[in-house]
Structure formats: structure tokens, C-alpha cells
Design brief:
six-stranded antiparallel sheet; 145 residues; single chain; alpha+beta
């Protein structure tokens, strides 16, 4: 289990060991996205892009539930990880998934602790714990958890 279990169970750790942490928003899909964008900006992180998978599906005459991925991060700190293991770049920048499912708005992200193991970058333990802590705090504040 994740070391963030003590944050009052504000999120769910996926038990398939995928490294995903899930949150449930009390806000609408649109408002959840707006709040996450604002909190990313307020945290002085760079919002690189936003991928609206539902819109892309619609553009080719398919239907997909509301599904958006926000790509964001801190290039200065992310570069440190990529210097240690160039292949970590496939998982950077950080991503937050917002999806509407079963009448709930869910938010998920890949734990950096999982990436630490995946890329054998144990020497960056302190930085990785900081990343996880900051993203969990950003999401819990944005979702008012």
C-alpha cells in the first residue's frame, strides 16, 4: 500500500499494482477540470497540454464518456529524473486523468513511487516522495477533499 494511506483515505490505491491513485470528485466533470487547471497554475507548474479524448472520438463519429488528460509538470525537476534514467521520459510530464464513469467524476494519476521502481531511480527517493506528496495535495485541494 502507498505511504499516503494516512491522508484520511481521500483516495483509492489501485490493487493491481499499476501505480495509479484514484480520487472521486464531488464536482461536475467541467468544474473538476477547471479546478485542477487552476490548482496546477497556482502551484507554479507548467500545463503542457490537455487531451480531450471524448472530443477526439467525437471528431471521428465515435462516442466516448468524458475523458480528459492534463499533462503538467516542472521541467527543472523532471529533467533530474530523465538524466538519471532517460526512459522515464515516456512517463513525463505528469498526467492527471479526469473521467466521468458510473455517474461519478474520477481523477487518477501515476504514483512516482511506482515509477521509481519501474526505472530503478531509488537514489531520487526524496524528490519522488515530494512529487507524490505535491500531486496528492494538489488534487485533494482542487477536489476539496
Amino acid at each position: 500500500m502507498s505511504k499516503f494511506e494516512d491522508l484520511n483515505k481521500k483516495y483509492i490505491v489501485n490493487d493491481d499494482h499499476s501505480g495509479l491513485l484514484f480520487f472521486v470528485s464531488c464536482y461536475s466533470f467541467k468544474e473538476t477540470l477547471e479546478r485542477l487547471r487552476l490548482f496546477i497554475k497556482n502551484a507554479k507548474l507548467h500545463l503542457f497540454c490537455e487531451i480531450d479524448h471524448a472530443q477526439l472520438a467525437h471528431d471521428v463519429n465515435l462516442h466516448l464518456r468524458p475523458t480528459v488528460v492534463l499533462l503538467f509538470g516542472n521541467p527543472e525537476k523532471g529533467t533530474l529524473l530523465m538524466e538519471a534514467s532517460p526512459f522515464v521520459a515516456i512517463d513525463l510530464p505528469s498526467k492527471i486523468l479526469v473521467i466521468e464513469e458510473d455517474n461519478n467524476v474520477k481523477v487518477a494519476f501515476n504514483s512516482f513511487s511506482y515509477l521509481k521502481t519501474r526505472y530503478n531511480i531509488e537514489s531520487f527517493n526524496e524528490l519522488i516522495e515530494e512529487f507524490d506528496k505535491n500531486i496528492v495535495e494538489l488534487i485533494t485541494k482542487a477536489l476539496s477533499l
